Amino acid sequence: MRRRLLTIALTVLTAFPALYGQFSPTLGVKGGISLANQSFRFTPIDYTLETEPLVGPALSLFVEAFRGVHFSFQIDISYALKGSSSSIQSVTVNHLDNDRITVNEGELTTSTFKYLSLAPMVRYRMGQASLVPYFLLGPRIDMLLNYSTNSEYPLYGQNGTILGLTCGAGLEFRLQQLGLFAELQYLPDLSPVINREPLLINNNMISLTLGLRWFVSE
What we know:
Layout: H1 2-23, E1 26-42, E2 47-49, E3 54-65, E4 71-94, E5 100-125, E6 131-149, E7 161-175, E8 178-188, E9 194-196, E10 199-215
Antiparallel strand pairs: 1-2, 1-3, 1-10, 3-4, 4-5, 5-6, 6-7, 7-8, 8-10, 9-10
């Protein structure tokens, strides 16, 4: 048994430099602003409420690994503030009068949803120069941290976990062990905040960030 464990340990120690070279990790942080909005749609009558977007912070930590000539793997852990503002106080649907809709407007109210997001992505770099454009694409999972509203009609039954996509593009300047970059992301959701008749609510958001990348293994 001891001989077997010793053999495994020696194998791992021998292979570790090669594995570490393939892993080639980089660490980073990015921060900026986000623009988030929501779509409120009444499904039986296909009516969409008008909403106004929210401006919030966009903050992320990330690890990049398995760097090839062009492709690498990256995972972002982010804080996201989503939601919308609306002056709609209530909506009444008169089914006896050809589904006639009556919209009662009130004061502007704001609803915010705070999420912790986890996004594994494929990163594609165009070249190996000092100034390199790149693209990001991958799935995303948002976990609800908090919901708040100043409306008299708060929402109930929100999904605690939402699936989505991350699509991004950026431009990075390489400076020895560091990379400075600007990045734009579009974050559509694949599952709704609420899907309970008659109401369907979906999030959407874009973010613009500046970031710093540290090349650990170089």
